[in-house]
Amino acid sequence: MKLLIVDDEEHMVESMIASIAWEETGVTDVFPAFSGRQALDVIDREEPDIVITDVRMPGMSGIELIRAIKSKRPHIRCMLLTGYAEFEYVQEGLRQKASHYLLKPVKDAELLAAVKETVDTLLLERERMREYVQSKAMAYRNLPSLRSNLLNNLIQGRLWPERNLAEQLLLYQIPVRIGDTVSLILIRIEDYDHRYRPADMIVMGFAVTNIIEELLANVYESWNCEDLYGHILFVVNCKAGMRNERDLERLADDMRRIVSQLLHLTISVILSPLGTFPAFVEDLYQRCVATVRSQIGYDSDLVVRLSGDSEKPVSHVVASLYSPPLLAHLLEAGNWSAASEKLEEIFCEWRRKYSGSKEHLSEIHYSLKSAYSYFVHKCGRLLADYDLQAEMDIKGAGELEYWAKSMLDRLQGEMNTELSESRHSLVAQIQQFVQEHLSEDVSLQAIANHVYMHPTHVSKVFKRETGENLSDYLLRLRMERAVFLLKESRHKIYEVASLSGYRNPTYFIKVFKEHFGVTPQEFRD
User: Fold this and answer.
1) Using an 8 Å Cβ cutoff, are 331 and 371 in contact?
2) Which has the minimum average pLDDT: 212-226, 432-446, 472-486?
């Protein structure tokens, strides 16, 4: 970080640059300027991140300087330092977006704290901007995958608030809007002659998808994914209107013929009736999958169009067990509140649809037991420690719900204990590093590098666990060492300063006096 200090009192600027330990705040370079015009020249040349300026200066005032800076470089943080406490200066400074307003004479500790806060804010903003740019770039690189995942979520029954779904459709550049009339095309790729190795079929899937995309593009806008069973699914937007009901059937015949000619594969195609997006997408998809199972089976090279008046097969599953997000995934992510809501959703569905059915209680029991077993093994533990390997006689929904929630509470408690122990371990590493390197560079960045974490995260964890700012902890240790050396050794003052981590003896004397009310020499005497 680069800092510019602007004041018409040259001796004060030079003293601030020479005597204050700016490096403790993360500032690497400090530049002087003795007028507003000179400050603008320095800004053009050095591009500082922070500007500290006096308010009243000959020619251009500090307020005018901030206005000029913000007009061209709004990212530069400006701080006002003045001996005038009039309210209008504070008011105008705030209007010009000054981050701090400090009154002369200001204590070094107060000034450093203000600069440190500004540096931390800039670092956090830059990190967020970097993450935003990276996420945007990643989104564009992964656009096909994001589109596919969204469609998979919809056909598996995940409910989206309408506004959120509309935003996702726009963000991912998907050519379907809420309320559009759509039809589904489900394609099963068949290689019964075993022309290709299993590894080659992944590439063949891409090839088939590209062929069908090109055929559809002449008439329709479409959106596709590969479902959980390896089928290729297309959502076809029919908002422009089909010429007649046989349109997609003719296209399906073209798909079969071209895939056979180019890839020597056969495909079976299931065409759904029309439905409104997204309300009917899950139902249409389930009908297509059921048709593959009940009407196509081991046959191949077929086209099946579903009638618009076919009844949907009655489903007897506890759907919330299998709709995303799954309980196992919520446990793995450590999303305990969502996992608790998931359990509530499952038992509410049982009470609403299957109350009294022990068969469905068994389905719930085995599914939850499977999720918990997966998580326990994922954490490197044994099922026996949680009685998950033993058979459990479930007598009723209340008993099963109590067991499920108790198990969730136990796992959450153990994971939170592990997290707390991990944070305690991190704080211990930080404290050991600081104590061992107190006379060296123990800046926040050096500490973060030592523990392989981001500086902001290090600061937050240390504060949360100890109740003390890392900078205050460092100052306290340095003062304690200085007191010990002054009492128990014959080191000269500049040597005590160096051993306490202060490169500048003058600054050490100022800090010591601010902390204890006397100079180091007075303390020793």
Assistant:
1) yes
2) 432-446
Query: Is a pLDDT exceeding 60 seen at residue 267?
Result: yes
Q: State the Cα–Cα distance between residues 190 and 270, nearest whole angstrom.
A: 14
User: Which residues pair with residue 52 across a beta bridge?
Assistant: 5, 79
CB 270 within 8 A of CB 292: yes
Dihedral of CA 199/201/203/205: which sign?
A: negative
Residue 187: the pLDDT is: 95
Model pLDDT, residue 310: 54
Q: State how far the alpha carbon of 259 is from the alpha carbons of 32, 189, 218, 288, 330, in Å.
A: 73, 10, 17, 21, 40
Burial status of residue 364 (CB atoms within 10 A of its CB: 0-12, 13-18, 19 or more): buried
Mean pLDDT calculated for residue range 199-221 = 90
Closest to 185 measured CA to CA, from 257, 259, 291: 291
| Alpha-carbon gap, residue 232 to 209, rounded angstroms | 7
CA-to-CA distance for 52 and 31, rounded, in angstroms? Answer: 10
Alpha carbon of 214 to those of 37, 78, 218, 232, 502: distances in Å? 63, 56, 7, 15, 70
Q: Which residues contact 2 (CB under 8 A, 6 or more apart)?
A: 27, 28, 29, 30, 31, 46, 47, 48, 49, 50
- The mean pLDDT value for 212-230 works out to 90
Task: Retrieve residue 414's tokens.
Answer: 């153990």
pTM: 0.51
Euclidean distance between the first and the last CA atom of the chain, given in angstroms as a whole number: 40
Among 38, 51, 73, residue whose Cα is nearest residue 5: 51
Q: Please give the backbone phi and psi of residue 305, each rounded to the nearest 5 degrees, phi first.
A: -105, 125
Give, in degrees to the nearest 5, the angle at Cα 448 between 444 and 454.
105
| Residues found in the chain | 525
- Residues with Cβ within 8 Å of residue 313, at least 6 apart in sequence: 286, 287, 290
pLDDT in tens, 320-355: 888 778 899 999 888 999 999 999 999 998 998 888
How much of the chain exceeds pLDDT 90, in percent? 34
Report the alpha-carbon angle 250-251-257, nearest 5.
90
Q: Report how far Cα 287 is from the mean position of its chain's Cα atoms.
A: 37
Do the beta carbons of residue 210 and residue 216 sit within 8 Å? no
3-state secondary structure 304-366: EECCCCCCCCCCCCCHHHCCCCCHHHHHHHCCHHHHHHHHHHHHHHHHHHCCCCHHHHHHHHH
Query: Any idea what the Cα angle at residue 418 is, between residues 460 and 406, rounded to 5°?
Result: 120
